[in-house]
Amino acid sequence: MDAEKKQEPNSQGAESQADAKDLDPTLAQRFQTCMIGAAVFDLSGLPKEYFTAVSGAGSSTTWVQTAFQALGLRSLLSSSLQLEGFRHAIIQGQGYSALVVKQNGRYIALLTSQEDLMTIGESFIQWARQFEPSDLRTNPRFRVT
Fold first, then answer.
1. Long-range own/partner contacts, residues 27-32 (CB < 8 A, 24 or more apart)
2. Measured CA distances, 68 to 2, 60, 64, 117 (Å)
3. What pLDDT does residue 5 have?
4. Nearest 5 degrees, angle CA 98-CA 68-CA 111?
5. Given CA atoms 40, 46, 48, 51 in this order, what sign does their dihedral have?
6. pLDDT digit string (tens) for 20-47?
7. pLDDT at res. 17
8. Quick one: which of 38, 57, 13, 28 has its CA closest to 120?
9. In what order do the strands lie in the sheet with 37-41?
10. Which pLDDT score, from 0 to 100, does residue 52 have?
């Protein structure tokens, strides 16, 4: 019975990842449209690459510092309290929200307006876990900083 219980979370996690990859393309397009910035961090929380909007609200990188600090706090809490299993964090600033998720070998932060993040919900988090930030290199709305 214990072995059966241990297998359940793994199978649910696999379904969750499959759901994110099988996401409706229209919904995935909506999520990319909602993004106004992105940042890539290594596993130690150091920023590696920023994607900022060519114009408008996402053209500043000040929010990246806040995401960096959140990853530092995550690291501190994990080591001090021996917490494991970081899934995501949502950082709310004035007029924006940043979603930070752990991917394989890195963290990414995706910047949206607060209104957009409130309406797109859990499916955005699932999508963010498999989103490839390098796709923004060819998106005319973004520039690499």
1. 27/123, 27/127, 28/127, 30/120, 31/120, 31/124, 31/127, 31/128, 31/131, 32/139
2. 39, 15, 6, 19
3. 33
4. 20
5. positive
6. 456 677 777 888 888 889 999 998 888 9
7. 44
8. 28
9. 88-92, 96-103, 106-113, 37-41, 47-53, 142-144
10. 87
What's the confidence (pLDDT) of residue 57? 59
CA dist., res. 66 & res. 64, Å (int): 5
Comparing CA positions, the residue from 51, 12, 17, 19 lying closest to residue 35 is 51
> Over pLDDT 90: what percentage of the chain?
19
By the 10 Å C-beta count (0-12 exposed, 13-18 middle, 19+ buried), 31 is classed as: buried
C-alpha distance from residue 45 to each of 7, 68, 84, 92, 123 (Å)? 31, 6, 16, 19, 24
Residues forming a β-bridge with 144 = 51
Partners of 51 in beta bridges: 38, 144
Q: pLDDT band at 54, cuts 50/70/90?
A: confident
Q: What is the mean pLDDT of residues 50-76?
A: 80
